[in-house]
Protein 1
Amino acid sequence: MYKDSYNIETKCLQAGYQPKNGEPRVLPIAQSTTFKYESSNEMGDLFDLKSEGYFYTRLQNPTNDAVAAKLTALEGGVAGMLTSSGQAANFLAIFNIACAGDHIVSSAAIYGGTFNLLDVTMRRMGIDVTFVSPNSTREELQAAFKPNTKLVFGETVSNPSLNVLDIELFADVAHKNGVPLIVDNTFPTPINCRPFEFGCDIVTHSTTKYLEGHATTIGGAIIDSGNFDWERYPEKFSCLTTPDESYHGVTYTKAFGKGAYITKATVQLMRDLGVIPSPFNCFLLDRGMDTLHVRMERHCDNALKIAKYLESNKNVSWVNYPMLPSSKDYELALKYMPKGCCGVVSFGVKGGREAATRFMDSLQLAAVVTHVADARTCVLHPASTTHRQLSDKQLEECGVTPDLIRLSVGIENADDIIEDIENALSESQK
């Protein structure tokens, strides 16, 4: 019988779905758009949220819900939902409580696509944003707040600059201003960092990365800690504390308590925007999470070994990996991720952008792909790919230099990866 007290490694395999006698041992795929009922009244009660059940997969599906429940258990939250991509997760997480005329504070060191989401698309929607350094002091962070600020956003470990967010500091300042902290926990995963334990209120993920782990599905997730008291600030979060006329006048905090935030995101935003993952993709995500604890340990061991090798290589100008004592974020990394950080290492090749290009073109084992956090080693030059829409100033704010190489260390034998890097570095200098 499943117990909430199980360790996280056991939860990777046992949480979310517990089959009853005679039921499938492996989570079934409910590959259906709709669900049949005997009466209109039963269906009506579902639409009115008076009873629990399934009627349309855009809102809920048994496979999707089981996988969301597993990830919620891993993060230590009270409720969660899956989305069709990590971008969709971040958008819904923010838009669920911020609308036209509102303001948010965000770390500048975030994934380029998320930076554009906040700096371009959400500004067009009337939501203002102030970017701050992830290394901001308390006073610098406080100065970014406005009367209409609704939330603070950051990444536990930023992609690709690998800045470590001081979660406790950001959470404390956010709470003193009466707003929640949302943290994208994609890189460490809950195996290495559980942001809720440090004051974070809502966690997002690109499940495309380590959670699924095999580069087969795109997906995202939002997990709510249930700790932020929305009713303490009823006017600021009226979207949760007053009746929603688009859904039968329900007041989410009154009707669903700690589940208010995720319920609203599901029945209002998912209803209208439809960014739901397919049950089959959720099934693949579940299979990936089964081995998450094993893979993350190997990713981290390999990455640290390769980061130390890169530090000693004469053809490398600099290395950034939070678990290296030379990293400016080393102490923060030990505080928030004592078991390890992630498998991503950033470094610069001597000779700048041209040498970086020769390096990547010379790799044999590592693949040049627009992806990260795969079981297989892969590499990318962010300034010319994932972050190419950003200006030089924006690149600087994100911590992305022109020579930065993002190496996503896989779970192959580390010696083979190092041999491949060694050969490519030699070629880069020709």
Protein 2
Amino acid sequence: MATNPLKKLLGDTAIYGLSSIIGRFLNYLLVPLYTYKIAAESGGYGVVTNIYAYTGLLLVLLTFGMETTFFRFSNKENANPDKTFSTSALTVGIVALLFATLTTIFLGPISRALNYADHPEYIEMMAIVVALDAFQAILFSRLRYKNRPVKFATLKLLFIVLNIALNLLFIVVAPALKDSYPDLFSWYRFENQVRYIFVANLISTSVVTLGFIPELRLLRLGIDRNLLKPMLKYTWPLLLLGLAGILNQVADKICYRFIVPGQEGEVQLGIYGACVKIAMIMALITQAFRYAYEPFVFGSSKDKKSKETQAVVMKYFVIFTMTAFLAVMMYLDIFKFIISKDYWEGLRAIPIVMMAEVFMGVYFNLSFWYKLSDQTWWGAIFSGIGCAVLIAINFIFVPKYGYMACAWGGVAGYGICMALSYIVGQKKAPVPYEAGKIIMYMALAVALYWISTFTQVENTALRLIINTLYIIAFLAVAYFADLRKVINVNKIINRLKH
């Protein structure tokens, strides 16, 4: 019996999503750990936010679109997926190794340029971690291509569990037991808390690499130069696309310490970075969806009904993400305890950041028309324009409005990317999206949230009950408009009875 492609997509997304959700939930445990142990006024969490922003940017540079390129060339006619993998992995690995080596050689000048002259070890550890992550990105892509979501999820969770364990050791266990066991914990220094965060990441990333030993054996196939040339031609626009895309996510966190220098900038960035972590559930959903959807689209691109499938998936993606938006915002009274009260002043940025992430998810869904037609330079143009808008908003408005300008800059940047990709895509390779319904779901969710802000009651329990009714109202509209076509409530009730 043939497998329903949508059911397979849903199944793979469930595994990727479950691992991402569990992993991100476990990783969220680090947020209260950092914010409760590192005071907002110290600016320490601002340093962590800033360093990881650089890491995200560098990861895009070092992978230079090879993940998507690997999928594209592995699905071409007469392709040799093993040779494509070895060519991709070795190319990225060589570039990553060169980057880590040069960073070590020129560590002093680089640290001073980034305002970390007093802590060059942060930069060195960051360079090694991002080099390993770049290489692992192709290895994880291999698992996705081979439809091995279980191993993918296992290795992702291994990193997170090990990273959390080491953070607990460095930030909770060691300082608590240092006085009782001075010989055992003689290495521990309280003032090095931020350094220990990066040490934990470095160790965890290194250990995960060992899980790819079976995939590493394929590297003996070497680099196929005849294959590499067209791959590089395909991937360079993806690099520009990726750079613009990641800058939309991290430019505010990178620029902030230059726009608002000194301790004040680190404090504000720490507050903003901590609150953004709550909003990142939307990024988690988009990422989990992407892991399953990208190989699915490339693999089914020859299907005559592929465009209709893309249109249906887009609609349900928006329904799901807007439900997540409402869930976070309606239960913010609970979610806010993820971070210390010192950081609560930044909670007002969360709905704005979440909508920016929704726009990014929609933009990702709209991106396949130029990826499938090998016109990836369109993506570079769209993302470049969006990035320019975001950076301009940051430099113009951050001095006056602080990190709120960062949040609105994300909405403007991704909103422009989304609009341009839809307009041009419908002319170049039209997909029958139900734009009216998609806009309706977005508007309805935002309207329900807006209404909830004006109907708040002082009693927290009662407020949560009322907010739950708003979520139910949204789901009821979605059910009668679309979801009842795929969800048979009577069948579910009968199964529960038996």
